[in-house]
Amino acid sequence: MKTISITILFWLLSILLLSDESQTSKIEVTYNYTAKNYTLIPENINKDVTILDLSYNQITLNITDTRVLQTYFLLTELYLIENNVIILHNNSFGKLSNLEILNICRNSIHIIQHNAFIGLNKLKQLHLCQNKILQLNSDIFIPLKNLILLNLQGNLISYFDVPQLFHLEFIILYGNPWNCSCSLLSLQNWLNTSNVTLENENITMCSYPDILNRYNIKMVPYEANCYSKFPSPITADLYHFQSVRDSTFNSSLNNLTSNSEHESHGKSWTLLIGVVVTVLVTSLLISIAIKCPVWYNFLLSYNHHRLEEHEAETYEDSFTGNPSSPSQIQDTNSEETTVIFEQLHSFVVDDDGFIEDKYIDTHELHEEN
Questions:
Q1: Which residues, including other chains, have CB under 8 Å from residue 228's CB and lie 6 or more apart?
Q2: SS3 content of the chain, % helix, strand, coil (to 5)
Q3: What percent of the chain is modeled with pLDDT above 70?
Q4: CA pair distance 321, 46, nearest whole angstrom
Q5: What is the mean pLDDT of each run of 10 residues along the chain (369 residues)?
Q6: How far is it, in rounded angstroms, from Cα 259 to Cα 312?
Q7: In which region does residue 239 sit, left (phi positive, over 0), alpha (psi from -120 to 50) or beta (all else)?
Q8: Sign, Cα dihedral of 122, 126, 132, 134
Q9: What is the second-level CATH architecture of the domain 25-235?
Q10: Which residues, at least 6 apart from 333, have a Cβ–Cβ distance to it below 8 Å?
Q11: What are phi and psi of 101, to 5 degrees?
């Protein structure tokens, strides 16, 4: 019995010691720098800070602020209410793995990059109220595995695609211009089928179309054709697979068709250009032949050539009708015979066939006769 009582005492003491250690490890270190007109997050804060309130300043959460925030890795709560934050950049809170509450309400945020909340594995509350957010990509919330409350009140959001594996307990959506057409049906189904609680449900109203502005987004009556546009969760994966398969087949078929059409169009254009060039060249040649007969006349008239010496002698003999003596031939050969033709006209129609030789002595011809 003594041994049992001793063991029980030791067990109780160990439990007390562990509880004391856990309480000491959860000591809150709070720094309040509200309304200090800061433009940057201060760097001289104790690195053991757990709660940091920088509300009502001029902080933009730029690259420098992001670098400083990485050093406060013990933060569990961060408040940036009413600052000048416009964009939430990628990896803005990358090393704040202990952060549980992030409040960035009353800024001018209109862009949230895809990996803005990466690293916030323990985040439970995210407040983005009263900003200028037009739409939200559902993938940005995927890293927030432990998120319980999402506050989107007072933005410019008209529709919201619920991300997969989204296990919220509370969501605040009022103050947005909700478009209650068929595109909001998925959000309504999620609100009605999940365990999430829509805060201020009675004032979370539709803005468009006008005939539905008296309904809250959770109670909008949809027509049957809206339900046909959204597949059930059971068949969603099958529908997605079929759509991908059909789109792949159609794209490949379209590529083949477009390629064949391009090839046929290319060949027809080549043939047409060849025919046009051939017709133009032929027409040009015909017009040159008709409009320029001078070349033709020149070719016809160009029939003479310079006579050689033996050809000149033969021609003289045939012209006089009497063969010359050898002495005469020698006398003739002693002198250089030159035959000159003068072309008076390029082409004469009534030519008698005789050529006038200026070197023929007309006096000798009369004596011989």
A1: none
A2: 40, 10, 50
A3: 59
A4: 141
A5: 54 52 62 95 93 97 94 96 96 94 97 94 96 91 93 95 80 95 89 92 93 91 70 40 45 49 56 83 79 60 54 52 47 47 47 52 55
A6: 77
A7: alpha
A8: positive
A9: Alpha-Beta Horseshoe (3.80)
A10: 309, 313
A11: -130, 125
pLDDT on residue 324: 47
Contact 168, 148 (CB under 8 A): yes
Q: What's residue 329's pLDDT? A: 41
Q: Residue 74: name the closest of 24, 19, 25, 141 by CA.
A: 25
Q: Within 10 Å of residue 138's Cβ, how many Cβ atoms?
A: 13
Tell me if the pTM is above 0.70. no
Query: How do the domains of the chain map onto residue ranges?
Result: 25-235, 300-368
- Nearest partner of 105 among 78, 136, 77, 80, judged by Cα: 80
Task: Report the pLDDT value the prediction gives residue 56, as an integer from 0 to 100.
Answer: 97
Angle formed by the axes of helices 326-334 and 309-320, to 10°? 130
From residue 68, alpha-carbon distances to 31, 74, 82, 138, 295 in Å are 15, 13, 20, 28, 94
d(CA 355, CA 34): 126
